[in-house]
């Protein structure tokens, strides 16, 4: 344990990707190692409580003017897959940041597993949530260092399985170094798609029952696109998934879609229904912001 964490801390000091990323790395490093007994029981579809509930949430960034989210309400049933869609700047990523409690809501309530997140100790909340942002921070060091961050003590087989699940198995076999292959400063030796899938593998290893995923906006090549789709499918197996979606394929596969426009929820429903009922969704799905 000492060696990888030492390397991680060393890498941590070298990270040049801004305060936000540093803060998140700090949170990853803060994650306590988890045992099966620690794991929250409400992992998947069996739970009576919804995984996440937003109740009339209004929020403005500190020092900002008008609220970024206004009177937002929606429910994410445990074990379901919910996509947030909407124009750029609508407030989708902010929804994820509030679930993580990076900021406090101005008014309204967010519940996770039935409990107001203000009543949950931060580590208990974070243990329930895996968060993969668009530009997922990757530490300088090896593949193994990056994976062990969320699963200290995990054996080789478990690390390799997580890599396979996100279609990164080849990274560990293409050099004689195996899992000890260097990923470069901030993961520069990996493509953007690979970096995000590595972050997904980390959350799979952490085994949080709820996964929050900010899908990349950038165009991925066909292979990375398919790999991401499979990684998301693997990640949502027996988990609740909330994804800020920029791809039609991600949205179509979701149980429920929440359409956000200028900080408000303007429609919710499954894909087929929204095509009929929401002009904005139809526009997003047919030609504007969702990549097919
Ligand atoms: P995109 O699809 O482009 O990622 P989004 O729907 O996820 O957009 P958010 O990133 O949630 O939108 O941003 C919503 C609004 O909040 C935007 O006007 C944005 O400029 C503002 N905003 C986002 N982050 C911050 C921040 N840390 N401080 C102040 N304002 C912010």
Q: Could you please describe the fold and organization of this structure?
A:
- With 292 residues, the protein is α/β, with parallel strands linked by helices.
- 37% of the residues lie in helices and 19% in strands.
- It has helices at residues 2-14, 18-30, 92-99, 122-128, 143-148, 156-165, 192-206, 222-236, 248-252, 271-277, 279-286; strands at 52-59, 69-76, 81-85, 107-112, 115-116, 129-132, 210-214, 240-244, 256-261, 264-269.
- The strands form 2 sheets. Strands 6-7-8-3-9-10 form a 6-stranded mixed β-sheet, with helices on both faces. The protein has a 4-stranded antiparallel β-sheet with strand order 2-1-4-5, with helices on one face.
- The longest helix is centred in the last third of the chain and has 15 residues, at 192-206.
- The chain is globular and about 55 Å long.
- Bound molecules: adenosine-5'-triphosphate.
- Adenosine-5'-triphosphate (ATP) binds at residues 61, 64, 68, 86, 88-94, 244.
What is the percentage of strand-forming residues? 15-25%
Share of helix among residues?
25-40%
Rg for CA atoms: 19 Å
Mean pLDDT: 83
Number of strands: 10
Number of helices: 11
Q: Strand arrangement, largest sheet?
A: 6-7-8-3-9-10
The main sheet comes to: 6 strands, mixed
Instruction: Tell the overall outline.
Output: globular
Bound molecules: adenosine-5'-triphosphate
N to C succession of SSEs: HHEEEHEEHEHHHEHEHEEHH
**Uncertain ranges:** 9-26, 28-45
Gist of the model:
This protein has 292 residues and is an alpha/beta fold. The chain has helices at 2-14, 18-30, 92-99, 122-128, 143-148, 156-165, 192-206, 222-236, 248-252, 271-277, 279-286; strands at 52-59, 69-76, 81-85, 107-112, 115-116, 129-132, 210-214, 240-244, 256-261, 264-269. The chain binds adenosine-5'-triphosphate (ATP).
